[in-house]
Amino acid sequence: MEEGLRNGVVLARLVRVFKGEGAVRRIYDAPKLDFRHSDNINHFFTFVRNVGLPEDFIFELTDLYEKKNFPKVIYCIHALSHLLARRGLAQRIGNLVGHLQFTDDQLQQTQKGLKDSGVAMPNFGNVGRELAKEINEEPEEPEEEVETEEERRDRLLFENEDSILATQAVARAFLVRKAQATQHARIRMAERYVPKIQAQCRALLFRQRHQRERDKRADLIPWAIGVQAQARARGVLQRRWFLRLKSALRSSKISVVKLQTAARARIVQRSHKELAKTFATPLVMENIVSLQAQARGVLRRLQLARQRSLLQRVAIPIIHLQAHTRGVLVRRRIGTQLAKLEDVTDVVIRIQAAARTFLARKRLLTLIRALRKATPALVSLQARARAKLAGQRHQAMHKALSQVQVMTSVGGFQAFARAALARNRHQEQTKRLEFVQPDVVGFQSVARGALVRCSYTAWRDYLRHSHPQATILQALLRGVLQRRKFRAKMEYYRSNLDKIVQIQSLFRAKETREQYRQLTVGTNVTVGTIKNFVHLLDDSEADFQEEIKVERLRQDVVKRIRENQALESDVNELDTKIALVVQNVKSFEELTKLRRTLGPDSAAVHAARTSVLAAHGDPFAGPSTLDRSAKRKLELYQQLFYFLQTKAGYLTKLFTRMTMEKDWEKHRRLTERVVLTLFGYGHDRREEYLLLKFFQMAIHEEATAAQSIEDITRGHPMFINVAVHYLRPKQTAYIRETLQAVIRGVIESEDLDLETDPSKIYRARIDLEEMRSGVPSKQAKDVPFHTALNDPDTRAEYIRHLQVLQWWTEEFVKAITQSVQKMPYGMRYMARETLNAVKSKFPDASVEACAACIARLVYYRYINPAIITPETFDIVSSTIDIASRKNLAQVSRMLTQITNGVEFGDDTPSYIPVNDYVWKAIKQISAWLIEVANVQDAETEYHAHEFLDATVQPKSIFISPNEVYAMHTLLSQHLDFLAPTREDTLRVILTELDGVPHIGNEELNEARDTAIELQLTNRFAHVRDPAADEKTLWVQAKRAVLAILRVQPAKDLVDSLMQPVIDEHEVIWEGILEEMEREQSRHQRRMPSTTAADSAYRLEDIRSMSFREVKAHAIYFLLELEKLGKISRMDGYQGILNAIAGDVRSKNRRRLQRQHEKESMEEALKYLAERKKAFEEQINYYHNFVENAMNTMQRGKGKRRFVIPFTQQYFHMRELQKAGKPPQFGSFKYTAQRLYKKGVLLSIDQYSPRQFDDIDIVMSSNDVGVFTIEVFNNALGITNRVASADVKMEDLLQAQFENRASYSLFSGLAKFNLNLLLWQINKKFYV
């Protein structure tokens, strides 16, 4: 505001508003403040004096232009507003107290500025009264008393009463519409049940109406009897009248008929005459005749067609009817004939007898005529026959009469005769009955029906009269039967109670297993299954403890890894320092300091380190010592590393950019260590997923930049080392399980030699002969390949070595190819992404070429190190011998060639004979590598999604401030490449950080070397999931549905939703909420679940609702999901049940995954502990070496050097002794000319070599490893110290380690030869 008013532009524009452009013709508006801006302010002075503002209220030009008294400027503007308000030209500026908000810091800063400038703050509250006093006018009306908040609220409510009532009406209408919509939704949800309910309602209504009618009929029985009597009487009278009328008509029938006939004849005659007159015209007659003919034809055809169609439809029934009719007619005719025959039986018999008599006589006459012709012969034959027959009869009669059974035989014969007659009569009767059987059957059926109806009517009437007694009797009988059945069943149950319990348990177990199987593999999960297994969604105490244990293990693993890395770095640094010490006879102060830093970090040391960081304003000093700016920087660093973790593209670009630089190796190890720390070494689900996505992007960027597939096969990108460190903890178990047997087989095989170079085999054979004979061989030892191969013994040994090497290679290949399922997922995922990237970049590449790209990481970086150095993977307990290592190297050479996908060439002629096997193994290994890459994506494996970083809490990382600042430096150096646009998030963060903090002194640098815990936060977490609304609906629907199933379980979800809510349900719901509160009070320290699926089932969000509201919300969310087409009411909202079942399955997978993580981290801790022990042993060895060396150096320091009297050095030491400042480790004085001649001194700025005689250089040391070099100028007999500097031995050694030839001192004033300067220091101070 002050800067905006200083140039007077705003004040000049204010004058122009009131006076017009004529008063202010030109406003000077230059961007830079200069003296011409005072013209704008002068215009304002002229205006306020013209309007009559007193001089006491007008500020000075310097008050505004130089900001000497800015409150007076504001006071003048307030007074001007009051004056203009009195003139009616403007509104006055009101009291701003309570309308503006300022922070305490702003108020304190303003008060401090006023106090320092000596300016008093004007009283703005009395500006109106002061102005009225100066201009001699009445003061303004006092402002109305400021009403209180309650008064203001009551006034506003009273003023807006109508609006409030209208709003309440609208709200009530909205609530009613919402309730009606909910009711309609419930009705739509129960649509498939409505017909059933309607049918039941209609049935109930019909039964009620029928019962009312029955009751009415029961009440109207007397009236009905009277009505029936009246109806009968009226019927009798009506029938009598009808009979009289009928008899009268019958008596006058002839007269009536004649009358009718005459009338009809008369009418017909009249109509005939009229028609005859009409049709008398010939033309009409012809047309009528033809029309009648056609009409008759049409009518006849239609009649015939109808008759035909009718006959066709009833043809079969007519045929049956005709057949039945013909049968009836035939049976009737036959019956008539039989009746007639029965009536004339005697006549027929007599006729038949007469006919038979006539025929007999005729036959007799014919026989007589014939016999007459043969009378003599016949007479004689008859006589003989009669005689014979008579004799026989006589004999038979004699025999029969002679027996007693004659009467019996006669009786039997009569019986046979009667039986034959009876059978004949029976047959005739049967035939008659068969003939009349249809009529008899019909009559019998009619008779039986009549009897049954009579019996039924009698029983019905009896039962109707005895209905109450029958009902009571039936109820008693049913009760007795039911009690008997129940007692029998209970006795049976009691006798078989054990078996019943066992059967019930087996059935429940089977049902539970079936429900669990349906839950795990089924697609349509029932409500009962969800209700039985919904407890699996809750985190138990065991789950909570396991989560804590896994989290602690993860932190321990990360800390152990960092400790091991720090120990390894210290070991490497000690190696370098000790080597430099031995070379340069270096002081051991540096080693002593390193030894102290490796010791335990006590509380005092930690406090001292914190105080150092806090003194320099470091943002990592701790929460208690941070100021606002340091805290803001800490937040920015947290956001920066979170952004680098979740946006892996920046790290991949940084790796690409660093590899293009010449000195990228200098920052490589630091960058790799920071990246591994950033992702927590992949020991957590989220961090491992993000690390794998980083590898995925790096692999695809490398493939995109590759010009040929060989660039990928032979390339060594920067991310490979990060991948190796990430996979190393998981590598040990896999390598031991896969290759331990074959590697130990190679090591433990005696006399195994896999050397394949014939020249070396030939030389070894010559050496063996010399050793056996003791006589030097005359044969040449160093012979070329083909010469050695032509030697028979060498050739045989060479072939045998190749055969054995091929056999062992086959064993290794077999062990490797059988280990696909044992390989860690991270390794397989990188193989998968490598294959995808290669196929995308080179679609025509062969399978072998793609497999070679995969083998670059899988074999060469993952498996091959274990074959070359098995002791580092705990495959063997001790270091292997040289012969075994050479044998493993030969196997490794074979496997490397196989995984490269090419055969041996002319550059390796000794391996060419095994090319056939190599080609065969290439096919096998290529298929195995492709199978390794056949794995699901990371999203499926880790149940991750696009917004995992916004839904899962990131883990803290352990990193030192120096590593943070080093990463900040690298990002700042390559910012234009990493973030080219101004809106880029990375550029925004780095710009706000405002540069890298300075390195500082040695003490500060040491304090920054200790790792701190850095919490990662997301400043840019406003990214919105496109499906967030849908996911929210799913979460809310699942939560509400589970709450309903806990209170109102049913067979169907729709049934549960349609059940009415009663007070009992509200009580159950309150009990569930109370139980949840008790559970929370028991586990107050429990961490909430970090997965989105688990958080969907916590009831915290709906605990404040009643169960009725929960149910209404459930119906609303289900209908919203149905509108989106995600679920359907036709299947009873099965989709929501399947979603809940999927969450239960995910919970089980999470438990299994947690167990696997626990085992893997315990294995990693064991491995890291062994590595730490090895590093500590090595560091202890270095410590012992340091102690021994320190003892030796201390003895050397105790010697007094002899100084030649009356020399420059003699007088120099005497002066130091007189001054009482002799350095502890000596002081030496040289002329610059002397050092220049020796080559130690190269140059001194502003001095030529001719002036070096007048310049002295003093080298002294009062602290271990620190040397003070001073330059004195003795010109004109006056000694002046030109420059002085302390030089540390470690700086000199580091410069020598970097191969620097010269070393500059005194800010570049003097330049020394580095090696000769070290030699001079070693000579004077250490030798």
UniProtKB/TrEMBL annotation:
<protein>
    <recommendedName>
        <fullName>Ras-GAP domain-containing protein</fullName>
    </recommendedName>
</protein>
<feature type="domain" description="Ras-GAP">
    <location>
        <begin position="686"/>
        <end position="900"/>
    </location>
</feature>
<dbReference type="InterPro" id="IPR000048">
    <property type="entry name" value="IQ_motif_EF-hand-BS"/>
</dbReference>
<dbReference type="Pfam" id="PF00616">
    <property type="entry name" value="RasGAP"/>
</dbReference>
<dbReference type="Pfam" id="PF03836">
    <property type="entry name" value="RasGAP_C"/>
</dbReference>
<dbReference type="InterPro" id="IPR036872">
    <property type="entry name" value="CH_dom_sf"/>
</dbReference>
<dbReference type="GO" id="GO:0005096">
    <property type="term" value="F:GTPase activator activity"/>
</dbReference>
<dbReference type="GO" id="GO:0005516">
    <property type="term" value="F:calmodulin binding"/>
</dbReference>
<dbReference type="InterPro" id="IPR008936">
    <property type="entry name" value="Rho_GTPase_activation_prot"/>
</dbReference>
<dbReference type="InterPro" id="IPR001936">
    <property type="entry name" value="RasGAP_dom"/>
</dbReference>
<dbReference type="GO" id="GO:0051015">
    <property type="term" value="F:actin filament binding"/>
</dbReference>
<feature type="domain" description="Calponin-homology (CH)">
    <location>
        <begin position="1"/>
        <end position="84"/>
    </location>
</feature>
<dbReference type="Pfam" id="PF00307">
    <property type="entry name" value="CH"/>
</dbReference>
<dbReference type="GO" id="GO:0110085">
    <property type="term" value="C:mitotic actomyosin contractile ring"/>
</dbReference>
<dbReference type="InterPro" id="IPR000593">
    <property type="entry name" value="RasGAP_C"/>
</dbReference>
<dbReference type="Pfam" id="PF00612">
    <property type="entry name" value="IQ"/>
</dbReference>
<dbReference type="GO" id="GO:1903479">
    <property type="term" value="P:mitotic actomyosin contractile ring assembly actin filament organization"/>
</dbReference>
<dbReference type="InterPro" id="IPR001715">
    <property type="entry name" value="CH_dom"/>
</dbReference>
